[in-house]
Amino acid sequence: MKKIGKMGAALLLTLSMAMLGACGNSNDGNTAAKNGNSATQAPAADNGDKTEGKSITLGFSQVGAESGWRSANTKSIQDSAKEAGYTLKFSDAQQKQENQIKALRSFIQQKVDVISFSPVVESGWDTVLKEAKAAGIPVVLTDRAVDSKDTSLYVTFLGSDFVEEGRKAGQWLTEQYKDAAEDVNIVELQGTTGSAPANDRMSGFAEVIKDNPHLKIIASQTGDFTRAKGKEVMQAFLKANKDIDVLYAHNDDMALGAIQAIEAAGLKPGQDIKIISVDAVKDGMQAASEGKINFIVECNPLLGSQLMQVVKDIVDGKAVEPRIVTEETTFTSEQAKEALPSREY
Ligand code: AHR
C-alpha cells in the first residue's frame, strides 16, 4: 500500500504539473492575442500560412546602378522588403555577370529562403540555377529574363514585356510617318549588349517598322543604358551621319545623354531630331514635357511589393503564375506634362 501510495502521489504530481503547464500555455496564448495583432499570432495550421511568425530571408542580386530606372527599382525592393519584415540580403553586381553568379552562390551557401535577381544578360545562368535547385532554394526572376530552356530552374518571371515596349515605340513612329514620301533616317541607342531589354526592345521595334520601307535604321549601337555612353555614342552618330531624323533610345538615361550631344551640335532635340525612349522616369518625363523627347514608353520599376507577395506565396507553398507581366502605358509630350507632378520615380 505504501508503495502504491508513493506511485499514486507521483502520478498526481505529474498530472497537476502537466495541467499547470497547459494552463500556462493557454494563458500565454490569451495574453498574446490580447496584446497584439491576432492575425500575426494565429498558428500556421489555422490559416494555412506557413510564414506567420517566421522571418523570410530573401537574397536579391541587382544589376547595378546604371540608370534612374535602376535606382527606383532598388529603392522599391529595399522599401518593400522592410515593410514586409523580411531580411533582405542585397548585392549590387555593378553590371557584371560574374558578380551576380558570385552573389547567387553566396546566397545558396547562406541558405536563404528565396533567391531573386535581375539578370544583367540573358545567357549563361544554367549552372548556377541548377546549384540553387539542387539546394532546394526557389528562384524568382525580376525585371529581366534568362534564356534557359529549362524553365524548372526558376519559379516565375515578374517584369515588363520588353518586346511589347519596342512595338509601342515602333507603332508611334509608324503613325507619325505614315505619309512619308522619302526615307526617314533612324539611329538606335541599344541597352546593355545581350540583356533582355536590349534584345527585345530592338526586335519589337524592328518588327513593327518593317511594314514601312521608308523607316530605315541607319545606325544602331549600345549605350549600355547609361547617360554618359548615350552622349558619347550620339556624338559619334552625329559625326558620321548628316541627316538623322529620329533617335530611338532603349532608355531615358541614354536619351538624356544624347540630348546633350544633339544640343552641343547646335540642333534642337524633339524638333530637328525626333526622340523616342523607354522608362518614363522623372528626368525623362521632364525632358518630354519640355518637348525634347517626343514619346516615352513606360517601363515600371516599382516591382518591390509584388515581389514580396510572390516570395511569401512561394514560402507558403502556394501556386504562383509562371509569368507576371507589369502593366504599363505610354506618354506623348502633352501627357508627360500632365503626369509629371504626380510621378513617383
Ligand atoms: O531592365 C530594365 C532596364 O534596365 C531599364 O529600361 C533601364 O533603364 C535599366 O537600366
Features of this protein?
about 350 residues, 6-stranded parallel β-sheet, 13 helices, disordered N terminus, binds alpha-L-arabinofuranose
Proportion of helical residues: 40-55%
Strand count: 12
What Rg is obtained from the alpha carbons, in whole angstroms? 28 Å
Q: Please state the overall shape, judged from the principal axes of the Cα atoms.
A: elongated
In terms of per-residue confidence, which ranges show pLDDT below 50 for 5 or more consecutive residues?
1-48
The end-to-end span amounts to 84 Å
- Which ligands are bound? alpha-L-arabinofuranose
Helix and strand element order:
HHHEHEHEHEEHEHEHEHEHEHEEH
What's the topology here?
Layout: H1 2-35, H2 38-41, H3 44-47, E1 57-62, H4 68-84, E2 87-92, H5 97-109, E3 114-117, H6 126-134, E4 139-142, E5 156-159, H7 162-176, E6 184-190, H8 196-209, E7 215-222, H9 227-240, E8 246-249, H10 252-264, E9 274-279, H11 282-289, E10 295-298, H12 304-315, E11 323-325, E12 330-332, H13 333-339
Parallel strand pairs: 1-2, 1-3, 3-4, 4-5, 5-11, 6-7, 6-8, 8-9, 9-10
Antiparallel strand pairs: 10-12
Bound molecules: alpha-L-arabinofuranose.
